[in-house]
Specification:
alpha/beta; TIM Barrel; four-stranded mixed beta sheet; three-stranded antiparallel beta sheet; 18 helices; 17 strands; 47% helix; 11% strand
């Protein structure tokens, strides 16, 4: 039986060559703004053309190829519990929760600012849901001192989940704090470098620029050998070409720039080719994420990542405001195409609603149901003498019933069994309470949150992490 991940391809070899050549010509002739003087000097010392007065760097084909050759094709994203280490690359597809959202839609159906309690809740739920791969808490808590939010997020991940944590890198201090707390978990600086535990998503300031804040944070992760996904977020027609192919070329140029920077700063740094792009709704000026064009770009990024022999990352989620028909088909479309395309990590897989303006408790579970369907589908079909069942078909003959056969008993549990979806006839569904899928998701969320969740660090380490969080609060208050 063959896994179906990576079987969906939309670009020919010639088209990938065209995109690559277009991206390299942009890097060589137009260049990209690099905001950091120290990195610009390092690039210049490495033979990269730099215009210091404009803070611009220009990369040629040979320099890009050299960087590609230094970048690992696959790597491990380590957890504090080794059983939860993740392989990133090859035809492995992993899924993560929505990312750093400042509002939630709670179990009462109210949209409100996210809190530390929500961050802890979502880390617990991410740990509970089997198909989610990381510990990310999903929300940006708004009820803590400004400048300490990222430390509270790290604490929620590291205490309440066994899965690999993510880093915040919107600024040098945030990245350094994430690394400092991860070192506590990993048991030292060298241990963290030997087994990278932090993954950061890095978004350039498209088109063809970087913010000082994001760049400094990204470089800090690179210097410490942690995992960095280069993840341009471009709305075609606004900050990129309106054509998906044009947006894809710009994405590729920005990725190749940061890949090259990373391999000059710290050769061998694990880098991924990511994407968080779509096209602008030109009727309204809205920036929808769940579009056919977004699915096409996701698919193409997975293919181009294989072209460059690096891991890939894409996104899912919905523009709908609640778990409804729109949410269902948009999540299913993004998750199915992304999985079949072979994206190695799909973030925003669950809970991402309102175009990323809210994280929904109910959608966390309805999306996870979609994810379980997609995950089962991508496993493919097992074809052999046993599964073909030719002898059994001959034995049963016309009008035979297979329900009591040993073959049925042996194989029936391999078929997909949903947890929340309804398969009852109308009358039976009415007798069972006539609940919607969203209502069943709500009940599931409540039941999981009501149970006792363990803490995955000892009391000494928990106290050290908590002290560090309090340090970030005090530091923020004094700044």
């Amino acid at each position: 039986m063959q896994n179906l991940a990576g079987h969906l391809e939309i670009l020919t070899q010639d088209e990938m060559d065209q995109i690559h050549q277009g991206a390299v010509s942009i890097l060589e002739e137009t260049g990209i703004t690099i905001p950091d003087e120290e990195v610009l000097r390092l690039l210049a010392d490495s033979g990269i053309k730099v215009e210091f007065d404009l803070k611009k760097a220009f990369f040629n084909e040979d320099q890009v190829k050299d960087a590609i050759n230094k970048s690992p094709a696959e790597y491990k994203w380590h957890a504090k519990t080794p059983d939860f280490d993740l392989h990133i690359g090859g035809n492995v597809v992993t899924y993560g929760i929505a990312s750093t959202i400042s509002h939630v839609i709670d179990l009462e159906g109210i949209k409100r600012p996210a809190t530390v309690a929500d961050a802890i809740n979502f880390s617990k739920l991410s740990n509970d849901l089997d198909l989610l791969c990381d510990a990310y808490c999903g929300v940006w808590p708004t009820d803590v001192p400004a400048g300490s939010e990222h430390a509270h997020m790290a604490y929620a991940q590291m205490v309440y989940s066994q899965k690999p944590p993510r880093a915040r890198l919107h600024g040098l201090t945030q990245a350094q704090d994430s690394i400092a707390m991860a070192r506590m978990i990993a048991n030292g600086e060298q241990a963290l470098k030997d087994k990278p535990m932090l993954m950061g998503l890095y978004s350039p300031l498209s088109p063809l620029a970087h913010t000082q804040e994001q760049f400094e944070g990204g470089i800090e992760l690179i210097k410490n050998g942690q995992l960095l996904i280069i993840c341009p977020g471009i709305y075609g027609g606004a900050i990129g070409p309106v054509t998906p192919a044009g947006t894809l070329t710009l994405i590729t140029a920005e990725f190749l720039c940061m890949l090259t920077v990373a391999q000059i700063v710290n050769p061998g740094t694990p880098i991924g080719f990511g994407n968080f792009s779509s096209v602008l709704d030109m009727r309204t000026g809205a920036g929808p994420m769940s579009t056919p064009e977004g699915c096409l770009i996701n698919t193409a990024v997975a293919q181009l990542a294989r072209f460059y022999n690096v891991p890939s990352r894409g996104h899912a989620g919905t523009d709908s405001n609640l778990p409804d028909a729109q949410s269902g088909f948009e999540s299913a479309s993004k998750l199915l195409t992304g999985t079949l395309a072979g994206l190695n990590h799909i973030s925003h897989s669950v809970g991402f609603v309102d175009g990323g303006r809210a994280l929904s408790y109910e959608s966390l579970f309805t999306d996870h149901e979609v994810l379980s369907f997609v995950n089962h589908y991508q496993l493919g079909m097992e074809v052999n003498e046993e599964t073909l069942a030719v002898d059994l078909i001959k034995k049963m003959g016309p009008k035979g019933s297979y329900i009591t056969e040993m073959h049925t008993l042996k194989h029936m549990r391999k078929n997909y069994i949903p947890e929340l979806s309804n398969r009852m006839a109308w009358d039976n569904w009415q007798k069972a309470g006539a609940t919607s899928m969203a209502q069943r998701a709500n009940e599931k969320a409540r039941s999981l949150l009501e149970k006792e969740h363990p803490e995955y660090v000892d009391e000494k380490l928990k106290a050290e992490l908590l002290d560090y969080v309090k340090h970030t609060e005090t530091r923020s208050a004094s700044e």
